[in-house]
Amino acid sequence: MAVASLLVEIKWPLVALLIALYAIRKVISYNRLRQFKGPPGTGFSDIPHSRAFLSGKCHEWYAEVSEKYGPVARIAPNVLITSSPEIWTRVNSIRSPYKRSKWFYQACRIEYGRDNVFSQIDDDAHEKRRKQMAPGYAGKENLELEPNIDGCVKDLIRLIRSKYLSSDAKVTPMDLAQKIQYFTLDVISLVGLGKSFGMLTADTDVDDFIKSSEEGLHVANFCCALNISWLAQLPVLGPRLCPSPTDKNGFGKMMATAFKFVDERAAKPVDSRSDMLASFIRHGLTGDQLRSEALEQVVAGSDTTAGAIRGILLYVLSNPRVYDKLQREIDGAVRNGQAPPAPEIISTAQAKELPYLQAVIREGLRIWPPVADIFPRDIPPGGETWTVDGQPVFIPGGTNIGYSAVAMHHDRKLYGDDAGSFRPERWFERDAEKLAAMIRTNEMIFGYGKFQCLGKPVAHIEIAKVIFELLRNFNWGLDNPSSPWKTTNLLGLFVIDDMWVHVADR
Question: Which UniProt keywords apply (predicted)?
Fold first, then answer.
C-alpha cells in the first residue's frame, strides 16, 4: 500500500516534468531555425509536411510555401526548403560536404538492408557505384542504344496505328499516359536488361509490373510521410516488412519480374558492347548489387522519362499556337531532308538541329518537372553560412535542406512574369547572360553535380524521338481538356493516368 500511495503522490509531478521536458525540447528545436519563416506549426511539428506528402501533391505545397515565405523557408522543425538555384548548386556540387538525408532516402530502399545508387547515403559508396554504372548509361558501351530506342518508337507507332486511330465516323479513345509508360518500360528493359518487357506488342501491363510498382510506391510514400521507414530496416522486423520476390503484389512482385530478367541476362556473355547490364557487370557489379541496380533502373528510369514525355505532350496539345508551330518545323524537317522519311526514326543528332523542338522540350521540362520532391540533404556538422536575400545566415549542422522543383523552375525573377505559362520562345532569349542562367537552372531538372541522374542522356534521346515521331505521324486531340489527366506524386515520381486522347493518321 505504501508503494501504491507513493506512486499516486508522484504521478502528477512526474507527468508535469515530462510535459515540461517535452516543451523545452520543442522550444529548443524551434529556436534552432527561428530565423526562417514557414506555414503555421512547421516550427514545432512534422504534421503539415506529412499531410503534404500524403496528399500526393507535395510539389504544389512546396511551391506555395516558397512563393509565400521566400527562397529559404521552414517546412518542419528540422527541415528547410529552397527555391534558389545558387543554394541548390552549392549543396549538390561535386565536392560538396552535404550528404543525403537518411529519413527520406531510407524510404527509397526497395530491399531490406541493401541500397541502390539512388538510396545510398554514404558518399564514398555512392561515388564508387556511380563510376561503375556511368559508362553504361552514357551509351559509350552500348552501340545499339539508339537503334533499340528507335525500335521501341516504331512499336509505339505500330500499336497506335493498328488499334487506336479515330476518324470522322468513330472516335477511339486512347490513354496516352498508359502507352507512354509501356514505351519507356520497353526501352529501359531492352537497353538496360537486354530484353524488352514487350508491353507495346502485348498492349498490356505485362506481369502487372506497373500495377506492382505503383502499389510499392504508395507504401513507400506513406512510410516516408510518417517517418516510419526505419522500422523496415530493423533486424527482426525488416525481413518481414520489406518486399520479397515471393510476394504476390507491390514491389515484391515487381522484384521477381526484374530479377528474372537480370539472371537471364547475367548468364549470357558480357564481354562485348551491348546493354547496360553487361556494362555494369564488366565494371564490377555482381549478384545482389546487380539485381538492386537493375530494379532501381527500371522503376526510376521509366517513370521519370514517362512523366517528362506526358508533360510535354499535354502542354503542346493544350496550346494550339505551339502545336501548330512545332508541327510546321517537324513537317519542314521531313520535307527538307533534315529527318529521314517514314518509317525511319529521326536520329538524336538530327533532333538537336531543330531549334523549336528543343525549345519545346526545355519548356515542357520546366513547366512540368518530371521529378518533383524535396530530395533533402544534411547540413555538415559544423553548420554553413548562406547568403539569403542579400544577408548572411548561419544554418546549424544537422539541419535538412531540400528544394522545390516547381518554385525553382517557375521563378518569375529568372523566367519573367509569365513564368507560369508554357512559352517555348523564352528559350530564344537574346540576353546571353540571362539565357545562360536559364539553361543552368533548367539543367538541374535531372539533378546536379554528384547527384545528377545517370539516366539523363537516355531520357533526352527518348523524349526528342517520341515527340517528333508522334507529331510527324498523327494528329492529336485531348478528349477532356478541362481535366486532361489524373496525377499523384509519390516520392517525387508521378503516377499519371486517364490521359485520354483521340488520334488520327496524317
Answer: Heme, Iron, Membrane, Metal-binding, Monooxygenase, Oxidoreductase, Transmembrane, Transmembrane helix, Virulence
Q: Is residue 237 part of a domain?
A: yes
Half-sphere exposure (Cβ direction) of 255: Cα atoms closer than 13 Å: 20
Question: What is the C-alpha to C-alpha distance for residues 318 and 312, in angstroms, rounded to an integer?
Answer: 10
Say which CATH number the domain at 246 has: 1.10.630.10
Contacts of 395 (CB under 8 A, 6+ apart): 33, 80, 379, 383, 384, 385, 386, 401
Q: Give the Cα-Cα-Cα angle 234, 108, 445 (nearest 5 degrees).
A: 160
Average pLDDT (327-346) is 97
Computed over its alpha carbons, how large is the radius of gyration of the chain?
Answer: 25
Burial class (CB in 10 A: 0-12, 13-18, 19+), 64: middle
The answer to whether 500 and 475 are in contact (CB under 8 A) is: no
pTM of the model: 0.93
Report the phi/psi class of residue 298: left, alpha or beta, with left for phi > 0 and alpha for psi in -120 to 50. alpha
The whole-angstrom separation of Cα 105 and Cα 229 is: 9
C-alpha dihedral over 52, 54, 55, 60, to 10 degrees? 40
Q: Which three cell numbers stand for residue 316?
A: 503542346
Identify whether 170 is part of a domain. Answer: yes
Judged against a pLDDT cut of 70, whether residue 28 lies above it is answered with: no
pLDDT tens, position by position, 277-335: 888 888 898 888 988 898 888 888 899 999 999 999 999 999 999 999 999 999 999 99
The CA-atom distances, in angstroms, between 231 and each of 9, 15, 226, 234, 237 are 37, 28, 11, 6, 7
What would the grid cell of residue 36 be? 526562417
Range of the domain at 277: 46-505
Sequence-ordered alpha helix ranges (H) in 226-354: 238-241, 250-266, 276-282, 287-317, 320-335, 348-352
453 is in an annotated binding site: yes
| Assigned domain for 288 exists | yes
pLDDT digit string, tens, across residues 171-206: 999 999 999 999 999 999 999 888 899 999 999 999
3-state secondary structure 407-450: HHHCCHHHHCCCCCCCCHHHHHCCCHHHHHHHHHHHHHHHCCHH
pLDDT score for 25: 61
Taking a C-beta distance cutoff of 8 angstroms, is the pair 406, 63 a contact? yes
Q: If you average pLDDT over residues 407-422, what whole number do you get?
A: 97
The per-residue pLDDT for range 226-260, each reduced to its tens digit, is 999 988 888 888 888 888 888 888 788 878 888 88
pLDDT over 90 at 261, yes or no: no
Q: Which three cell numbers stand for residue 465?
A: 524521338
> How crowded is the C-beta side of 413, counted as CA atoms within 13 Å?
11
Q: In what order do the strands lie in the sheet with 474-478?
A: 174-175, 500-505, 474-478
The alpha helices in 336-485, defined as continuous H runs, are: 348-352, 355-367, 405-409, 412-415, 432-442, 456-473
